[in-house]
Amino acid sequence: MAKIAYLLLCHKDPEAIIRQAERLTAVGDFMAIHFDGSADPAAYRQITSALADNPNVTFARKRIRCGWGEWSLVEATLHTLRAAVEDFPRATHFYMLSGDCMAIKSAEYVHQFLDEHDRDFIESVDYFKSDWIKTGWKEERLIYRHWFNERTQRKLFYAMFNLQKRLGLTRSIPADLQIQIGSQWWCLRRRTVEFLLEFVKQRRDVIRFFRSTWIPDETFFQTLVRHLVPEAEIENRSLTFLMFTDYGMPVTFYNDHYDLLLSQNYLFARKISPEAVDLKRRLGLLYAARSVPFQISNEGRSLFDFLTGRGRIGRRFANRFWETEATLGRERELLIVICKKWNVAKRVLERIRQVTNLPAVEYLFSEEDTPLPDLGGIQTTLEKRTRHRRAVLRMLFDYYETDRLIVCIDPANLDLLNDFASDRSITRMLEIECRLPDDYLIGHAMRSGLAGDQTSQETLNRLLPTIRGAMLHETDCIRDAQFEHYNCLRETADPDSNAAALGQFLMIPEEKAREIAQTERLFAD
To answer: E-strand spans in 391-507?
Structure first.
């Protein structure tokens, strides 16, 4: 009978991880956990303490600081896989999961399914001939070396890429490999895993190649399984059910999706909403149940495509998802930097990004050319971003796979601040109070069209007090709103006071906050 070692890569929500481990191991299966090396140490201690007496749970010997698109995700998976192979000799299958996956079949059904299908389940298609990559880079992911994180070290990432491209510094793909691509949610047999781990030991050249490819978790296992296992023993699909919207974002499942999920020809589903408490309860009970019949209709994707398609031609059954998604999510934190001097805010934001590694976006509601990922078109204009503000931010949270995101907002946009402050998510604000010298106000008047090159000094002298008064009024309105979790960074304050404000805003240790506050020329124009 099949025995499954689940591989769980996670970085948050320790209570949910503990429940998931207890639920999946209660029927005799196993779990190996990798908790992100950059995540909260207290959360990791909570998990290890709660599961210490469970013989069917183990942990990766080494914790890796993981970043999207990096080799670190593959490295963390390999550490977790090795721990599972060593500690669970009775495991026949190894199944990759994320923290927001849940079983949509009973353990009895899952084991019987794997017993009847002696093969590896992994989505794995030809990298160059398939259309798996819809837009963006294809060959560039492989033939150039990528050492930096595209999301957190964007300037370095693209600078190194452009330098290699300009100098023609391309490289060859290992000659005996045919690169494949597919979903990272796979289920592999023990024999395949042992072949793979031995191959990793022998072929350091392959490891060096994938270590500097971009998004290797979509190509590494997919390529090596095809290289090591006969094609007849591979089923080219994942056993985890997931869907994407026509905006390229994962569909989230809620309490009313229970019957839909059970009818799909899959064993697990991703992503289950943290707020779907009843769905989680019912699926948790289902895994341990016996003799449960399942009516497989597998209509999930076609039904979803049909309903969204009707919306495209003006005949929809309900509002668009961005009109009904009333919250960013209770578990999320939106951190807002408020400043009239955009260059100062951007400098502070860059320093915060360097010290904390938090994803950050500049004035996305004020600057048309703010660098943003492709969100299916909703990000293309300021008008769309502002009208669908919560949808845009939800997509950015999902894109960066984070529960903490920083954005910059101009103090004139009080309606945006009020809107986000009323959300069920946690909203923290940091206002940056700067001096407003006459030369800055003149520049602002020029940029905003209130003055031009031919405006006389006399006119400017009459105009400047009005502009200064308008800016001070914006600040007064923000103070009068009495936002919760509000802090202020002042150009006139000493570093200790500013470090305290930064520490409360970012919820970081004093030494890190002081490192940001003491940055040279932090408030310079």
So the answer is: 404-409, 426-433, 486-490
